[in-house]
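Trying the structure run again after the queue cleared.
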Amino acid sequence: MIIDCHGHYTTAPPALAAWRERQTASLSDPAAAPSPADLRIGDDELRESVEPNQLRLMDERGIDLTVFSPRASFMAHHVGDFRTSAAWAALCNDLCHRVAGLYPERFAPAAMLPQSPGVDPASCVPELTRCVEELGAVAVNLNPDPSGGHWTAPPLTDRSWYPLYEKLVEYDVPAMVHVSTSVNPAFHTTGGHYLNADTTAFMQLVQGDLFADFPTLRLVIPHGGGAVPYHWGRFRGLAAALGRPELEEHVLGNVFFDTCVYHQPGIDLLLDVVPTRNVLFASEMIGAVRGVDPRTGHHFDDTRRYVEASALPAQEVAAVQEHNARAVYPRLDALLKRQGR
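Done. Tokens:
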């Protein structure tokens, strides 16, 4: 199998964005707030949103299954308060669950959390519980910067995050560390903020000792880890200066990277620097980079081509494309086994 661990519902029917516009407009006029029941999207609309888009490209590229979560830039945790985020997260999570229900062998649902700036992360636990127990979520997206590019949240190693980690460990569910829209004009959302966040999150984990308290917690850092593989020597040197063990011992038992890197030299570097067991296949399709590379004639986000053109032996390619995801996402593995796969 080829499992894409990083897919977002970027093609949701327009009614979802229209509902969100009503919600955000009502922040200054609470009487105009929409009800969740106001969002009416039929199954046929869901099919029309994915069949010519994600499913078509998955078929063309030979991707068997995608871990499918709400659109990352739409999470927008900086908008409104916790109640705003809670209502929005529930709607988005329900839609991903419904898509997975329509195509159970092609999508596995993942969830966004109802985070909000300055709000205790423990407030997210009820939605996490609902998504895992009722919606069958196999993972969640965890935003290390709910403020939208201003970085007002404590580092991921802060104890305020611990109630959320405790629940993730209880459910044996990994979290993808994924920010949302940047409202800071200094940081372009997908070209700056996303990659900055990947790098920042990794350094926070190097500085701390989170996994001494949560030895089975698993975090996936997307977009190839941002700058991490390119500056591996810097991070090793900083770990040593901080009195931390080598990175393989300190973080790589718990931290994983995906292959959302959109050129061959980048994938080659990632696979050369990071142990194969820590790399999961992903494309983020359909995501931030949708065009065709004029140098190759292929889509930038057709990451399967890069992985299979790398120097990895076939057994390690299979690990990246399937077996590592099964190990990091045990609920996904259980789902696939129930399906006879």
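The chain has a mean pLDDT of 97. Worth checking whether this holds up in the mutant runs.
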